[in-house]
Amino acid sequence: MANIKVLVVEDEKIVAKDIQYRVKSLGYDVCGIASTGAEAVESAETYRPDLVLMDIQLKGDLDGVQAADRIRSFLDIPIIYLTAYNDKVTLDRAKQTNPFGYILKPFEDRDLFTGIEMALNKHRIDKSIRESEKWLSTVLQSIGDAVITTDTDGIVTYINPIAQELTGWSQEDAYGKALDDVFRVVDDQSGERFTNTAQQILEGELEKQRAENPVLISKDGSEQMIEYRGTPIKDEMGTIGVVMVVFHDVTERLRAAKALMESFQTSADIVRSIPTGLLIFQREGKDRLVLLEGNPEAERLIKRSVDEWIAREMEDIWPPIADLKLKDAFLEVMRTGEPFEEEAFHLKGELSEGYYNIRAFRMPGSRLGIAVKDVTQQKRAEIELEKVSNFLKFIVDNANDWLTVMDDSMNVLVWNKAAETISGYESEDIVGGTEIWKWLYPDKTAREAVKERFNRILGGGEMDQDHETVIKTKYGGERTVAWNASRHFDENGLVIGVIEVGRDVTERKKAEERIRANLREKEILLKEIHHRVKNNLQIISSLLHLQSKKVSDDVSHLMFMESMNRIRTMSLLHAKLYESDDLAKIDFGEYLSTLTSFLFQSYGVNSEVVAYEIDVGDIHLSIDTGIPCGLIANELISNALKYAFPEGRKGKISLFLKETADSEYELRISDDGVGLPEGIDIGAKDTLGMQLIGSLTDHLDGTVEIDRSGGTAFVIRFKDLKYKDRT
C-alpha cells in the first residue's frame, strides 16, 4: 500500500476533500485533485498516479467517461468510477473504457478500500500475465526448431511459425485440431501412418513407437524428413498440463546419410556435406573404437581437428563420452545393429559445455557412426519456458482471489489455491472437466444462467463485472462470490476461453444485511419519534385552544392563535418528515406551500383578495434548519396577513428560496401591502414576532435585511445547519 498515488477527480469540492481525507486515512497518497475532465487528463500526465478515482458526472466539455478514455490512451493504470448514477446508459458508456470498478455514492471507507485494493491487485495480475505471455510467446517464436503444443487430450493449442511453415497449417486452422491431423507422420520405408502421438508421449512410449526415418506430410501433401521428440510438461506439483512436440527438417541431412549408407561409400566429401556433426569410428578388436573420419561440424562441436585425431580411441577424442559411460551403448549398437539415441545430454568437457542429441548407428565394414547435434539453445529455451510456466503458476496460486481459466467448452484449465479454499474442491479433481459446475450449482436454473453468461462472454457480449452468484461448497455450505470475467485470447487474437476472477463476499454481504437491518430499525424508530413529537405538539396546541376559549378580549385570543400557529408550524414539519423517505431532510418547497395555505385558512383570508406565490424549487433542508426557517416564515406570513392589507386591500405575498454561492441559502418573503412602519427593530423586546425573527436568524448563524422600497420584504441569508451532537 506504501507509495500508492491516487488522483481524485470530483467537481464537488466538499466531496473531493472528503474523498482525499478518506483515501489518506486508508494509507494511500493523494497526488492531486481535479474538478474537470480536462484537468484530470492534465493531472494524470503530470503526476503519473497509480490509480484514478473518477466521478462520471463532471462539469465542462469532458465528462468522467471521456476523461478516463483519454487517460487510458497514454497510461496503463486502473480507473475506478465514483458515481451517484447507476442507470444502464451511463454504465454502458463507462464499461467501454474498461474500468476496474464502480463505487456508488454515498460510500463508506470500506467501499473505497475494497475497490482500490481489488483494482490494484487485478491490475498487477493482468500486467504480470501480459508480460509473461508476451515473453513466453517471443521465446517460442525465436527458437530454431518447430514446436507444437497440445492439451492432455492431444488437441493443438499452439504452433510456432517454423512448425506452421513445415506443416502448412496456420495457428488459426490448427487450433482445436487433433495433433495427428496436423502432425502427420509416416514411416519412410513402409509408409505406415503413426497415430496417437500425444498419448504415446504421455505414457513415455514414443521412443518405442517412433519411426526410424519419419516423414512429415504437410497440409498440401509435400513430404519432409524430420527428427522429432515429445515432452510432457509438468507443473511444480508434478501435474501434466501440456504436451510439446519439437521437430526439425532433416530431409537433406538424412537423404545424404541414406545415400552414403546405400552406396557403401566413405567419401570425405559426402561426410563433410552433412550439417549435423558426424564422427565415424572403426571397431578394432573386441571393444576398441578408433576415429576414422569426421566432418567440419563435428570438429566445431568437439573443438578438435579431426585430422590430428585419426586412429585415436574414442576416450581420447571426447572424454565426456567416456565419463557418461556411453561406450557400452555404442558397442551394443555394433553388436545388435539397433540404433541408439539420447536426447539433450548435458555434456561438459574441458573445451565445451552444452546440451547435445547423440545418435549412434551401425555402418557397413564394422563401423560406427555417431551423429551429434548441438541443442543447447533449444534446451535452454525449454528450461526458460518451464520457468515462465512455473512463475505464472506461482502468481496464480498465490493470488487472493479465486481464478479459473476455462476453454471454450467450459472445461477447467486452471484452478488456483484460492478456488480450492473457497469451494473446497482440489485442483486435481477439477482440471480437465466440467462436472464442477454441477457441484457448485446443483440448481439447474442457476447452472443454466451461469452457462448462458459464459457463452455470452465467449461470443463477445457483455462481461457483467462484479456479477454475484451463490455457490454450494464441497462441504455443503454456501458462499457468495463476486465475479469479474475476461476473455482468453491466443497469440493471434482469437478467443479460446474465459478467465473468471472471483472474490468471496459472503461476510461482506452478511455485514451489509446487518447494516440494512439496523438502518430499517432506526428508520422505524425515527418515524415513531417524529410521530410522538407531532402528537405532543398537537396536545399542546389543543391545550392552548381550550385555554383560548376562556378569554374574551381579541388581543388575548389573537395571542393564543399565534402561539397555536407556531406550534402548528413545527408540527407540520414533523408531519412532513414522518411522511418522507428521507428522515433527515424535508422538501421545503412542499412544506412552505402547505404552511402558507394553512395560515391563509387560519386568518380567514380570501386568496382571491390576497394571493400568494411560492418559488422554492427542489431544495431540501435538515430538521435543524427547517424548524427555524418554518417559524420565521410563519411570523412573516402572519404579520403580512394581519397588517399589510387593511380594509380589504388587495395584494400578493411572495415567498422565494434559492441556493446561492458557497452553499448559502436566501429566503425572501415579501408583500406589496401598506409597508412596514419606519423604526421597526427586529430585536425589539416589546414585539414578540420581530424578536422571534431576530432570535431564529441568529440560531441559523444568518443575517436578516428589510427592504421597504415596495411594500415590505424580509431577506434572510443562512446556511444549512449540520447536525450537532447534543450529548
Task: State the domain count.
Answer: 6
Distance between the termini: 38 Å
Radius of gyration: 43 Å
Q: Give the low-confidence spans.
A: 263-267
CATH class of the largest domain: Alpha Beta
Largest beta sheet, briefly? 7 strands, antiparallel
Shape: rod-shaped
CATH architecture identity of the largest domain: 2-Layer Sandwich
How many helices does DSSP assign?
Answer: 26
Q: Approximately how much beta-strand content do the residues carry?
A: 25-35%
Q: Spell out the CATH superfamily of the largest domain.
A: Histidine kinase-like ATPase, C-terminal domain
Mean pLDDT: 78
Helix content: 40-55%
Arrangement of strands in the largest sheet? 7-6-12-11-10-8-9
- Based on secondary structure, the structural category is alpha+beta
* Number of DSSP E strands: 29
CATH topology of the largest domain: Heat Shock Protein 90
